[in-house]
Amino acid sequence: MRWSIRPMSRCLTANSSDSPMVVQSQFIEMFGDTFQNERGWTFKKLPEVSTIVLGSTPSSSNVAFWDGDVKWITPAELSDDSFYLYDSERHITEEGVKSTSLKPFPAGTVILSTRAPIGKTAIAGCEMYCNQGFKNFVCDNTINSVYLFFTLRIHNPELQKMGTGSTFLELSKKAIEQISISVPPKELQDEFEQFYKQADKSKFDGLKSQFIEMFSCALQRKLSDVANITMGASPDSNYYNTTNSGLPFYQGKTEFGDMYIGKATLYCSEPIRIAQPNDILMSVRAPVGTVNITKEECCIGRGLASIRPNGVEQLFLYYALKLKEKDLDALGTGTTFKAINKDMLYEFSIEVGTIDKQKVFVEIAQQADKSKYLS
To answer: Torsion over CA of 330, 335, 336 and 340, rounded to 10 degrees?
Structure first.
């Protein structure tokens, strides 16, 4: 039997907030239980279809190993909403890489946390390194990264049950190597990837069309006229800690969730720039334009800016900026990585409309999004 994608018109209704469940349902309909090989395809162990890359941690006592330009992730940086990762909370130096003989994994690698916690998944958006809390899969030409990502995410409960250990549960490399998965025809895996991208884009495009319809003729204002903007600054690394001393410290978008920023992995005892609860946080470098909201006071590094609405609805401004992420990214400059500066952000134009119309748009946006909102 030829398994194929259901027409999008049947899968994505006007209430496109259902799209995450639609995607999972589509995956199961197409591939069945991929750990049990319900469709009777080739059934192979993970090492037969991928190269497994492990990680390590440079000595924390050697300052020469830290605060470099090399991306190095930890399991705490992954959330239930993680998909592509483009940066890490902490960075190491080339000297730190050599000290532990770390091996990089390329863009497209499927990332799986195997301790504290087990089962969080993501895909590397660029070359990265990691600590010892991961088993990462560089797929061969028979496996689509998005297909393997969903296979592991859907089977998160089974992966957690496989963990062993007395101090904390860990999923060993030996256990990982014994996991077998279905290997459907590659073109079918690729079809699913396109379905996922279309489903994810459908919700965004519907909201963007609604925004244009409601605000295309509205007054345009500079962002600095409707918000108080604070550009982040990175404190001396001597003030960083993992003992919850001081304020949660965010250097970039690593902990960004679907709407709210996740738990910090670092704290800072001597913050320089501070964001207040309910401020909008924007990534201003590598990548540019992604937004989230903080629920608590926090320290922000140079990769972020905090935006506090002034005279406009808070959630309206959040959604308006989210819909303009590509416009913001297009402003980015730089040879090593894109970034926007204070002047660019201050001068960025936004359509605001009346407060009543802003509230109506927020109601529409909330219907199209299953995230938790401010009370």
So the answer is: -40
Token readout for 100 is 């532990």
Helix axes 186-215, 355-367, angle to 10 degrees: 160
Q: In this structure, are residues 180 and 37 in contact, taking their beta carbons and an 8 Å threshold?
A: yes
Query: What would the pLDDT profile of 47-98 be if each residue is shown by its tens digit?
Result: 999 999 999 999 999 999 999 989 999 998 888 778 888 778 889 999 999 9
Contact 195, 28 (CB under 8 A): no
DSSP states along 65-100: GEEEEEEEE-GGG--TT--EE---SEEE-HHHHHHT
Cis peptide before 287 (omega within 30 of 0): yes
Cis peptide before 117 (omega within 30 of 0): yes
Are the C-beta atoms of residues 183 and 142 closer than 8 Å to each other? Answer: yes
Which residue, 94, 105, 119, is CA-closest to 55? 105
Q: 212: burial class by Cβ within 10 Å (0-12, 13-18, 19+)?
A: exposed
**What's the pLDDT tens digit per position in 141-173?**
999 999 999 999 999 999 999 999 888 889 999
The structure's pTM equals: 0.59
Strand 118-124 to strand 227-231: parallel, antiparallel, or no bridges (unpaired)? unpaired
CATH number for the region 217-367 comes to 3.90.220.20
Positive or negative, the CA dihedral 302, 308, 312, 315 is positive
Cα dist. 208→143, 180, 216, 329, 335 in Å? 33, 41, 11, 17, 30
- Fill in the DSSP letter of residue 7: P
| Multiple choice CATH, 24-188, 3.30.300.30, 3.90.220.20, 3.30.450.20, 3.40.50.720 | 3.90.220.20
Region(s) of the chain under CATH 3.90.220.20: 24-188, 217-367
